[in-house]
Design goal:
The structure is a single chain. By secondary structure, the chain is α+β, with helices and mostly antiparallel strands. Strands 1, 2, 3, 4, 5, 6, 7, 8, 9 and 10 form a 10-stranded mixed sheet that branches. The model has no long low-confidence stretch (mean pLDDT 95). α1 crosses α2 and α3 packs across α4. It has 2 domains: 102 residues, Pseudouridine synthase I, catalytic domain, N-terminal subdomain (Alpha-Beta Plaits); 132 residues, 2-Layer Sandwich (Alpha-Beta Plaits), CATH 3.30.70. It has 6 helices and 10 strands. The protein is globular.
């Protein structure tokens, strides 16, 4: 049966995360409903990763199998016509059976947005973490401690089902763009809530509070790293598939400035 991969952008504000749930709106649930309608048969999808409730994406990748006689253009148009306005299918492609959106991926990239003017902005509600002024340079310097492969148990959310707490962070940068502080992080994979917990600790550092990240990693204790950052500042912005020729996601204005 033919397999199709597709790229998805979505605003997670009105969804209870990516993963399908009974009687609750989720991104996966909306897409499967739309695909099943276009294919005229119940169809399930798999994805590169499951985002939490309130988390957004500009570069999510998913896939499904179908023998329905539809063009790629018809798939894309049909899915966009049948899903809410806060979900957009950016592209649809045929892929071979060796492709899997999760297991074929070699890296994932997230962006976390802080808006540090000291008060919430009505046009950014649900899109950023509104906070007090942060020292982006200090955050960046400390973030370099996280590069490489480590046991990230201190940043691992309760209920994480991964068999190992080890992950390899390839890139972790914090830069200021006007009134925004932007965390960009790439790893081979992430643990549950790992990016949000890293964002929370860097937020603490940006406020001038001392945190020894080397020691924090060595604790291997989630209770030592403080509260989880709110989901609304987090965006899944890219998934790497070096063995497959898939379109690169375009960053929207809020991420590209």
């Amino acid at each position: 049966m033919p397999q199709y991969a597709f790229g998805v952008t979505y605003c997670g504000t009105n969804f209870h995360g990516w993963q399908r749930q009974t009687q609750l709106p989720t991104v996966q649930g909306e897409l499967e409903r739309a695909i099943s309608h276009v294919a005229n048969v119940q169809t399930q999808i798999s994805a590169a990763g499951r985002t939490d409730a309130g988390v957004h994406a500009t570069g999510q990748v998913a896939a499904f199998h179908s023998d329905a006689d539809r063009t790629l253009q018809n798939w894309q148009r049909g899915l966009n016509a049948l899903t809410p306005d806060d979900i957009l299918v950016d592209w649809v492609l045929n892929v071979d059976d060796h492709f899997h959106p999760r297991f074929s991926a070699t890296a994932r990239r997230y962006t976390y947005l802080f808006h540090d003017v000291g008060h919430p902005h009505p046009l950014l509600s649900g899109r950023v973490w509104s906070c007090q002024k942060l020292d982006a340079d200090r955050m960046h310097r400390h973030a370099q401690t996280l590069l490489g492969e480590h046991d990230f148990s201190s940043f691992r959310g309760a209920g994480c089902q991964s068999m190992t707490p080890f992950r390899r962070i390839n890139r972790c940068e914090v830069i200021r763009r006007g009134d925004f502080v932007v965390l960009e992080i790439e790893a081979n994979a992430f643990l549950l809530h790992m990016v949000r917990n890293i964002a929370s600790v860097l937020h603490t550092i940006g406020r001038g509070i001392s945190v020894d990240l080397v020691q924090l990693l060595s604790f291997r204790d989630r209770t030592k790293s403080g509260p989880t950052a709110p989901p609304e500042g987090l965006y899944l912005v890219g998934v790497s598939y070096p063995d497959f020729d898939l379109p690169q996601p375009l960053e929207p204005a809020i991420l590209g400035f």
